[in-house]
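Ticket reopened. Same input as before:
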Amino acid sequence: SAVISQKPSRDICQRGTSLTIQCQVDSQVTMMFWYRQQPGQSLTLIATANQGSEATYESGFVIDKFPISRPNLTFSTLTVSNMSPEDSSIYLCSALQLGSQYFGAGTRLSVL
Amino acid sequence: KQEVTQIPAALSVPEGENLVLNCSFTDSAIYNLQWFRQDPGKGLTSLLLIQSSQREQTSGRLNASLDKSSGRSTLYIAASQPGDSATYLCAVPSGTGANNLFFGTGTRLTVIP
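Engineering reply: fixed in the latest deploy. New output:
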């Protein structure tokens, strides 16, 4: 199974700033995903990140707010831009391998 | 649009009891279903993946079933232990051919020693 390393594990940020979250996979994968989990809720997909192409965003999420990079088959980043308190959530990355999705430990973001 | 519901939302059982968690989905055109556990403040751990052609999948004390036609899946946990306490999530691909997942609302399980 794929092992996903995500960092930072948590951060406290000021309103209006940006945070970049990194996600490293221990093997090459074609498809990676970024999810958000708001307090007390389940996971919602932000975007799909495939290497060599632009990320595909779900309804309600835009590239200006959540730019994503996917420079190679083992790495991706998600930036949360111009943060507001409403962005306080857990952000998780995942990778698809042999039909199963494997998740990182998540980044707990608090915006003051 | 796919909707995934999990019942109950929370469950408390004494240690040693067998239990069943339920998951229902509205669009039966899925090609697999995955069960995860999430510990507080942590990421997700994959428990079981059931392909649409399968009816059951087992791993240790866990057994997951899938009935596509009725849009239901169950996760059976035998001889529960305090270490099983977590939130359990089921997830299905969000559409035909999709690889991203649509998650249920989760069941928060507490196993009382």
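Chain A has a mean pLDDT of 94. The radius of gyration of chain A is 13 Å. Please confirm and we'll close it.
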